[in-house]
Specification:
alpha/beta, Rossmann fold, N-(1-d-carboxylethyl)-l-norvaline Dehydrogenase, domain 2, 10-stranded mixed sheet
Length: 347
């Protein structure tokens, strides 16, 4: 693909984040089509895509349940924007079409890239700092964030990375290439370890660090991750000026922190795990975040009771179709203590 060739972007898993990216690319004049399902797909086909918030407008884009019903050519680039657990079946259903096409993974965590690479797909990673969600079928709210970092998996940058980044920049996204995308995605994985906590305690992103007890809990969760990743010899590149250990120390600063910006009904946002519980979807991605830390801890002999409890209780809440807010900071700490004693053979 040359710079003079218009890319053909297929957004597979066109939920909140996928639709924001699709809208931006379409607004910039790129060819864009969507793969979605259920009532959301029906609304996209009948009424088009509507986005409000930090991205605003309406777009009528080709939308289908399968790529067979879209225009796929040699200039097609697949952006996988569904949840991690939905990736495997989706790719298997499309493997004949996607086998020789570049696939960019927009999911949090590192499971998708590892799975695709093992099966010899042309794999790229994308670290995503975008907040968005479906408010009703065909309608998406972009609550904040425009940052996307793209690189070849597990490291390196090629001409395709540069081309996609340029297209995203022209669409108004804050896009950059990343020479070591695996390190960046491990950093985002750690950042997402708090998603289960926010879902179980019913906290918005803006409220998560206001109270000391919440902030200290998140710091302790991140400390387990720091211990585990260091034991595994992994480099976790944090987003922002602080490294992971510095961020943990920062979160342990005492007192009440004001929400910045002040929380309003228009800017209040919730992580995707909270959204999954609220929508009663029956599953959450926490096994690819907190679960990844637990499994690494088991391999390297590092205890991870807080991440284990977050993983187990959040999966349980999802399977039982419970609303956000079933736990408190205190109840989670107590559960983690009981888990740790059980692992040690205590009573």
């Amino acid at each position: 693909m040359t710079d003079k060739t218009t890319a053909n972007y297929v957004i597979h898993g066109a939920g909140g984040i996928g639709c924001v990216v699709a809208a931006r690319l379409a607004q910039a004049g790129q060819r864009v089509s969507l793969i979605a399902r259920g009532d959301h797909l029906l609304a996209l086909q009948q009424k088009g895509l509507q986005v409000h918030g930090d991205t605003s407008g309406k777009w009528k884009l080709p939308a289908a349940a399968h790529a067979n019903d879209l225009n796929i050519d040699e200039h097609t680039i697949i952006l996988l924007t569904m949840k991690t657990d939905d990736t495997f079946k989706a790719v298997e259903q499309h493997q004949e079409i996607y086998r020789d096409l570049p696939i960019i993974c927009f999911q949090n965590g590192v499971t998708n890239e590892a799975w695709l690479t093992k099966r010899n797909f042309l794999t790229y990673g994308c670290t995503v700092m975008v907040g968005a969600g479906i408010t009703e079928p065909g309608v998406v709210r972009h609550s904040g964030g425009k940052m996307l970092e793209i690189g070849s998996w597990p490291s390196g940058v090629d001409n395709l990375c540069l081309r996609i980044t340029k297209d995203l920049q022209l669409s108004g996204m804050e896009a950059n290439v990343d020479e070591n995308i695996e390190n960046g995605k491990w950093g985002k994985l750690v950042r997402n370890l708090s998603n289960a906590y926010l879902a179980l305690t019913d906290l918005s992103v803006q409220e998560a660090s206001c109270l000391q007890e919440d902030r200290f809990f998140i710091a302790d969760v991140n400390e387990e991750a720091a211990n585990v990743t260091e034991a595994a010899g992994l480099f976790v590149r944090s987003i922002g000026k602080r490294n992971l250990r510095e961020q943990i120390d920062h979160l342990r600063t005492g007192g009440v922190w004001p929400a910045r910006p002040p929380v309003t009904e228009t800017n209040r946002s919730y992580p995707s795990t909270w959204q999954d519980l609220k929508a009663k979807r029956g599953s959450v991605e926490v096994d690819h975040f907190n679960g990844a830390i637990v499994r690494l801890g088991e391999i390297h002999g590092v205890e991870t009771p807080l991440n284990r409890v977050l993983r187990d209780l959040c999966r349980d809440a999802a399977s039982r179709l419970l609303d956000p807010g079933t736990e408190t900071c205190e109840s989670l700490r107590n559960a983690a203590k009981n888990t740790d004693r059980g692992a040690r053979g205590g009573t």
